[in-house]
Specification:
By secondary structure, the chain is α/β, with parallel strands linked by helices. The chain has ten helices and eight strands. The protein has a single domain, classed as 3-Layer(aba) Sandwich (Rossmann fold). Helices cover 45% and strands 14% of the residues. An eight-stranded mixed beta sheet has the order 3-2-1-4-5-6-7-8, with helices on both faces. α4 links the parallel β4 and β5. α1 crosses α8, α3 runs parallel beside α4 and α5 crosses α10. The protein is globular. The chain starts with a strand and ends in a 7-residue tail after the last helix. Bound molecules: NADP nicotinamide-adenine-dinucleotide phosphate. NADP nicotinamide-adenine-dinucleotide phosphate binds next to α1 and β5.
């Protein structure tokens, strides 16, 4: 079996870390792309040990910052010519967030991290993915979107500059945009060997104390109740690993997966081509410089 080179953004915790372990266990090269050197290094040691594979690396990227994504892509491309799998797993969602926050580049943080960042990173690494025998791009969305069947990306105000900010609305809008982006990518990649598929992540256990320290008691109780109906990160990561490695999906593109071998549908709006194009035009306008890679 040929060794694949795989990048997992946010590979230092939760599902991303579990996927890193599973993929490294199969002797593939994994690069976890994390924003914190400290958390990344701790996860790196753990992943290497649990996978019994030293061929795992840490590279630093802050997915909310386009300058950081460009620096990351440049550093990766200086060392690797080919990328086989790109898993766009990192995402911002903090249930405690009440106020809108902007990055130092002036973009609303959730939109920047969960949607604009992944689009830019893919753009910058696309040539390396095309050089792979069969490159794969995997984006991550959320099953929570089924509770918002009519949700649209607000084309006039995606960054909540005029309307009232809500962390849930911002998060689900970004995840809706990722699904639409995946359909767009699959079409753009057309006859190339590169595939693009999205994953509908269900309720997955999180380490509440680590993720949300000082959470009010009521919310803590809510999370502990929710976790009883949640699957483990390891279980969810099996879908990541399947889409990253399985020969069964070498030619599957533009699909939305719930679990291995189970394709689900997204809302009618996400399939509307005019809307997809508008979302992508909007995304391009948020990028600070044109992509030259
Ligand atoms: N857990 C669920 O129930 C659930 C449900 C639906 C969808 N999802 C999706 O599943 C994916 C994985 O979530 P998870 O449950 O594994 O959560 P998690 O443990 O909180 O993992 C999120 C990862 O993203 C990283 N991240 C956040 N902002 C970043 C930034 N600006 N730059 C780089 N990395 C950043 C985090 O890094 P730090 O450690 O530095 O914060 C962390 O490694 C996400 O896309 C999430 O939206 C999860």
């Amino acid at each position: 079996m040929k060794q694949k080179v795989c990048i997992i953004t946010g590979g230092n915790s939760g599902i991303g870390k579990a996927a890193a372990i599973q993929i490294a266990q199969q002797r593939h090269k994994v690069i976890i792309a994390c924003r914190s050197q400290q958390r990344g290094a701790a996860a790196l040691a753990d992943i290497r040990q649990q996978a019994n594979n030293e061929d795992v690396e840490l590279m630093i990227v802050d997915m909310s910052l386009q300058s950081s994504i460009r620096a990351f892509a440049q550093a990766f491309l200086a060392r690797y010519e080919v990328l086989d799998v790109l898993i766009q797993n990192a995402a911002a969602f903090d249930i405690r967030q009440k106020q809108i926050a902007f990055t130092e580049e002036g973009v609303e943080k959730i939109w920047a991290t969960n949607h604009v960042g992944p689009v830019l990173l893919t753009d910058l690494l696309l040539d390396a993915l095309k050089r792979s025998e069969q490159g794969r791009i995997i984006t991550i969305s959320s099953k929570g979107l089924v509770t918002y069947p009519f949700l649209k990306v607000d084309l006039d105000d995606p960054e909540f500059r005029e309307r009232k900010f809500s962390v849930q609305k911002a998060y689900y809008q970004s995840k809706q945009a990722q699904v639409m982006y995946t359909y767009w990518l699959a079409k753009m990649l057309g006859e190339t060997a590169v595939t693009a598929n999205a994953i509908r992540v269900t309720n997955v256990q999180i380490d509440v104390d680590e993720r949300y320290p000082h959470l009010p008691t009521l919310l803590r109780k809510m999370y502990s109740l929710k976790s009883r109906f949640s699957i483990t990160p390891e279980e969810m990561a099996k879908t990541y690993t399947y889409l990253a490695l399985s020969p069964d999906v070498a030619q599957t593109t533009g699909k939305y997966f719930d679990d291995p071998e189970h394709i689900v549908d997204s809302s009618a709006y996400t399939h509307d081509w005019e809307s997809i194009e508008k979302v992508m035009q909007l995304t391009r306008r948020t990028m600070k410089q044109p992509v030259t890679a």
